[in-house]
Task: inverse folding
C-alpha cells in the first residue's frame, strides 16, 4: 500500500476550558498522567549509539519541507520539535513538548500555548513565543499553499510575553482549531531573518529537534547526527527514543536494486509494500541463518483510501456515470489472487478498518444530515449499501464489461473502429505513475478498458517530474492515497473541499467541487462529541463513495517489515506505529563506524 511520507495524526480536544492543562484529549482520561516518566512502549534505559541506515526512494534537492518547490530530504523532520507530542499507543492524545501547558477559551475563541522555559534551538538559543508566531506566519505567507488552507480559520497570532502565545480564531464553531496547532513545527525567527525562505533549498536549517544534519550529497544521501545537547532528550515523551547516534538515508532509484542492497547489508531496515516481493523475494542464506528477521506486524491504524483517482478537471471524467463504468473494469479479485498472493482486502470506504467506515443504509442520525442535501447527492446513498463489484477472480469479467458498456452507451458513447467515440472524439486518457513495479497492476486494467473501446495509456515518470505533474494537476488519472486518523477534521477540507481544488499542491487531487461534501465536512469539523463525529464522517463517506471519485484498490492491517538482527526492541510495541525510533543497537553494533 502506498504510504505517504507525511501521516496526519489529529487529537481530540479536551474539556479543558478556562484552565491550563498539560495534555489534549476529549471525553476520556489520557493513559499517561501528568507526572509520568516515559511511554510504555519504550525502554528508558536503552543504550545510545550506532549508525542506523535506511534506503530512500528517488532523489531530493531541498532541506525545506515547508515549501511547494523541490523534493525535501528524507528524515528532515528529525530536525524539528512541535508544540506537543503524540502518544503512539493512544488514539489521538498529545502531551507537552515545546509547549508545557495549553489553555483554551471557554467559548473556543482562542488558545494559548505556554512555552517550556527550557526549550532550546540546536545552537543553544531559547525558544520563545516570537518563534512560534514566526513559524506560523512564515508558513502562511511563504509556505506551501496547503498551510494557508489548513490554518484558514486562524485569525491571527499574538505574543503575550516571551513564554506565551495566543492564536485567535475567526470562528468558535471549529472545535479542532486548537488541535491542529499542536503539530506546528517551530523554527527560529533569528535564523531566517536574513534568508529567503522560498529560495533556501540548500540552506541547512536550524531546529530544536533531536538530530542535526551531519553531511549530505543531494540526490545521493543525507546523514543526521544525534544532538547530544538536545534540550528535550530526558523529557517523558522522548525518554527511550532517538537512540541512534547517526541516521543515514541512501537514495535508490530502482526498487529491485534497493531490495538487493538491503539483503547485502547496505542498510538495516526495510518496510515492504509489494505483496509479490514480500512473498517471493525475502529469501536466501541471511534469512535462513537468522541474520535478517521478517515480520507481519499487526497494527491498529485506520486505513484510508488507496485508489485510481480521476481528475475531474478533465471534462472526460466530470460525469459520475462514466466514472462508475470505469470502476467495473478493475478486476480486484484477479489482481489480489495473481499478483498479491491474496494478501489484501478491497477497500470499501475512505475510512476503512475503523469505526468511521460507513456500512448498510444510513442511520436515523445520518439521515438528519443527508436529507437536507437530497437534491445534491446521488439517490443511491439512500437506496442501497455501497459495495464494489466482486468478480470470480478468473480474469474473465464479461458481465462487468457489458454493464460498463451499457452505461457508456447510455451516456452517448458509441463504437467506431473498435474505439468509443462521442461527438467525434475518442475516449482516450493517460494513467500517471512513478512506481515502475505498479505497472503490473495497471496493465491488466488498461487491457480490460481496451475491450470496451477505451484507449488508456501509461506514463511512468521519475520522482521529480511526477511530483511536478501532480502539484500542477497535470494528469488524467493517478494512484492516490489518503491516510486518515481516528479523528478526522480540518484536513478533509484540504483533501476534498471546494476551495482547495484550485490551490496548486493541495491534496484535492481529483478537483472535487461539491457543495454537499463541503457541508458534510463542516459537520465533521464542528462535531461536539464522538457520536456526532462518527455520524458526520459516515455520512460524508457515503456521499464520497457514491460519487465514484475513485476506483478503490486495497488495504492491509499489517506492517511487512524486515531488518538485520542488530537491534533490541521494547517489550511492548506501539499500537499506531512501528516505533523504529524506540529501537536500539545490540552492544556489538553500538560503535559508530
Result:
Amino acid at each position: 500500500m502506498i504510504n505517504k511520507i507525511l501521516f496526519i495524526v489529529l487529537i481530540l480536544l479536551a474539556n479543558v476550558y478556562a484552565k491550563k492543562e498539560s495534555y489534549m484529549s476529549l471525553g476520556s482520561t489520557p493513559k499517561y498522567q501528568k507526572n509520568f516518566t516515559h511511554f510504555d512502549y519504550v525502554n528508558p534505559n536503552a543504550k545510545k549509539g550506532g549508525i542506523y541506515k535506511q534506503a530512500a526512494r528517488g532523489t531530493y534537492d531541498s532541506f525545506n519541507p515547508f515549501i511547494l518547490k523541490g523534493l525535501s530530504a528524507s528524515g528532515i523532520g528529525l530536525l524539528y520539535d512541535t508544540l506537543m507530542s503524540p502518544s503512539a499507543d493512544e488514539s489521538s492524545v498529545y502531551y507537552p513538548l515545546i509547549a508545557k501547558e495549553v489553555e483554551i477559551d471557554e467559548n473556543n475563541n482562542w488558545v494559548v500555548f505556554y512555552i517550556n522555559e527550557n526549550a532550546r534551538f540546536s545552537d543553544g538559543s531559547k525558544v520563545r513565543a516570537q518563534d512560534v508566531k514566526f513559524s506560523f506566519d512564515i508558513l502562511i505567507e511563504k509556505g506551501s499553499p496547503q498551510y494557508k488552507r489548513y490554518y484558514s480559520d486562524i485569525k491571527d497570532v499574538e505574543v503575550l510575553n516571551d513564554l506565551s502565545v495566543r492564536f485567535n480564531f475567526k470562528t468558535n464553531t471549529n472545535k479542532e482549531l486548537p488541535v491542529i496547532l499542536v503539530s506546528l513545527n517551530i523554527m527560529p525567527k533569528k535564523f531566517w531573518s536574513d534568508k529567503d525562505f522560498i529560495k533556501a533549498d540548500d540552506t541547512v536549517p536550524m531546529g530544536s529537534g533531536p538530530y542535526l544534519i551531519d553531511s549530505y550529497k543531494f540526490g545521493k544521501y543525507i546523514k543526521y547526527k544525534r544532538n547530544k545537547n538536545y534540550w528535550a532528550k530526558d523529557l517523558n515523551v522522548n525518554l527511550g527514543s532517538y537512540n541512534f547516534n547517526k541516521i543515514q538515508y541512501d537514495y535508490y532509484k530502482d526498487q529491485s536494486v534497493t531490495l538487493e542492497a538491503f539483503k547485502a547489508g547496505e542498510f538495516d531496515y526495510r518496510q515492504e509494500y509489494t505483496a509479490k516481493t514480500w512473498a517471493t523475494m525475502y529469501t536466501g542464506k541471511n534469512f535462513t541463518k537468522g541474520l535478517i528477521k521478517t515480520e507481519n506486524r499487526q497494527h491498529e491504524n485506520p486505513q484510508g483510501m488507496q485508489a485510481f483517482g480521476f481528475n475531474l478537471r478533465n471534462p472526460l471524467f466530470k460525469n459520475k456515470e462514466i466514472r462508475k463504468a470505469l470502476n467495473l473494469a478493475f478486476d480486484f479479485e484477479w489482481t489480489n489472487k495473481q499478483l498479491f498472493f491474496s494478501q489484501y482486502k478491497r477497500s470499501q470506504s475512505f475510512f476503512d478498518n475503523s469505526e468511521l467506515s460507513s456500512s448498510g443504509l444510513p442511520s436515523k442520525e445520518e439521515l438528519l444530515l443527508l436529507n437536507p442535501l437530497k437534491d445534491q447527492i446521488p439517490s443511491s446513498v439512500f437506496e442501497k449499501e455501497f459495495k464494489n463489484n466482486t468478480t470470480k477472480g478468473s480474469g474473465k469479467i464479461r458481465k462487468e464489461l457489458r454493464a460498463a458498456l451499457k452505461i457508456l452507451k447510455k451516456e452517448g458513447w458509441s463504437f467506431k473502429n473498435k474505439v468509443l467515440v462521442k461527438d467525434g472524439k475518442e475516449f482516450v486518457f493517460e494513467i500517471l505513475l512513478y512506481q515502475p513495479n505498479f505497472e503490473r497492476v495497471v496493465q491488466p486494467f488498461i487491457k480490460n478498458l481496451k475491450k470496451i473501446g477505451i484507449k488508456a495509456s501509461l506514463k511512468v515518470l521519475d520522482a521529480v517530474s511526477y511530483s511536478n505533474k501532480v502539484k500542477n494537476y497535470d494528469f488524467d488519472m493517478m494512484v492516490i492515497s489518503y491516510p486518515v486518523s481516528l479523528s478526522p477534521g480540518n484536513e478533509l477540507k484540504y483533501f476534498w473541499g471546494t476551495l482547495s481544488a484550485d490551490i496548486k499542491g493541495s491534496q484535492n487531487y481529483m478537483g472535487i467541487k461539491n457543495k454537499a461534501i463541503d457541508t458534510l465536512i463542516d459537520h465533521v469539523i464542528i462535531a461536539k462529541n464522538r457520536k456526532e463525529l462518527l455520524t458526520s464522517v459516515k455520512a460524508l463517506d457515503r456521499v464520497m463513495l457514491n460519487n465514484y471519485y475513485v476506483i478503490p484498490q486495497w488495504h492491509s492491517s499489517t506492517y511487512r517489515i524486515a531488518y538485520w538482527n542488530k537491534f533490541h526492541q521494547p517489550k511492548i510495541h506501539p499500537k499506531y506505529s512501528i516505533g523504529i525510533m524506540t529501537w536500539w543497537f545490540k552492544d556489538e553494533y553500538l560503535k559508530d563506524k
The longest helix spans residues 530-546. The CA atoms of residues 434 and 461 lie 5 Å apart. Residues 1-18 have pLDDT under 50 and may be disordered. The longest strand covers residues 154-161.
